[in-house]
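ARCHIVE ENTRY
Sequence with per-residue tokens
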Amino acid sequence: MLCGKSASEAGHSMSVRRSRGRATVTHAVIVIFLEFFAWGLLTTPMLTVLNETFLQHTFLMNGLIQGVKGFLSFLSAPLIGALSDIWGRKSFLLMTVFFTCAPIPFLRINPWWYFALISVSGIFSVTFSVIFAYVADITEEHERSTAYGLVSATFAASLVTSPAIGAFLSQRFDDSVVVLVATVISVLDIAFVFFLVPESLPDKIRATEFSWQQADPFNSLRRVGQDPTVLLICVTVFLSYLPEAGQYSSFFLYLKQVIHFTPAAIAAFIAMVGILSIIAQTVLLSVLMRTIGNKRTVLLGLMFQIVQLVWYGLGSQPWMMWAAGTIAALSSITFPAVSALVSHCASAEQQGVVQGMITGIRGLCNGLGPALYGFIFFLFNVELSDIEKPEQTPPAETPLVPGPPFLIGSCAVLVAVFVAFFIPENHKLSDASKPGAAAHAQNGSTLAPPLSDPEDIEPLLQDTVM
């Protein structure tokens, strides 16, 4: 907790929390679960429609679609954050859930419209960011990291079972039934937000002014070089998250079309990695941070990521993907550990601005990573086999490097390890990195929650569904 808080400030804080007592973390958890459960159901139908729509250069087109979506999210997140500080969270939560789920029924109505809507929906695909701000509004500082962890675990849990259920429904009935179920769940999510989710931000503490500087997505990135430690952390995040973002956008397609996973195997793979990731981000992360510290935990997570990417890139057999998936779950500790490291390096009033820099870097990677992976697949002429012949025998000649983007990504993470090695673990950031930090944190210019306690940890997640 911050020291020196006056009695009047404490009384105001207590009165504010009483006024927003109806809003709970449970509301946030339900919204996240329903949204990503609906998208998880579409894993199998989406892969089929993607290949049928783009017969040539499927990886390239998938990367471009997801890249446009990610880059639009990066551009729009600060604006939505600044406006939600003025007009409240609920209206923007309703907007983000609606536009994120809007493309779902078009998967069967018109695939071209579906992929077009997927791209432009990036303008509003920032549900996680609004949810984090919602949670920050209704929790005490010492409760916030636990609440964020619950939201993160819910996201993972929603993807543990939904792909398997979607694959079963697709096999038992057809893809139209899966799309219908996902649409119904999306409508339920929208109705839940509209009718049952209360506003978390009382009128008395809302921002009263808006400036375009708050809505500038590059605002936080301009401060990156003003402190050497911030620069090292941001370079580490960029080099490690760029291949991660690309992997998220194409990996299930890669498993199905290059490694010849069946839809059931893909669903089981997602469930395994999801369960192991939950364990890694709770039990393992806690143990490591207590025993070896934040910086060494970051380095260990990056080493796991290198092994995972190399294994994905060189592996040509299904068992290799399963083994690499286990390592991928272990590597999921990296970004929570980075966020914790930042929290300990930054002073209380610097939390918002420095976490905002990391959020901005990640948002930029969400746009660049998928496009980069798609281009590398295209450059190395990694094309897809005929999806209409799932039982066909894989080609006799397996390329030496089945997944070039993963191997190239591992090289980027190797450089990230070298950079992270020079991050001073106990260094306090200089004032040069925080001009206007307090205003930045309060106005949420990158939709980073208004953190004020060095022990607060913002989970580093992304609004990516495929």
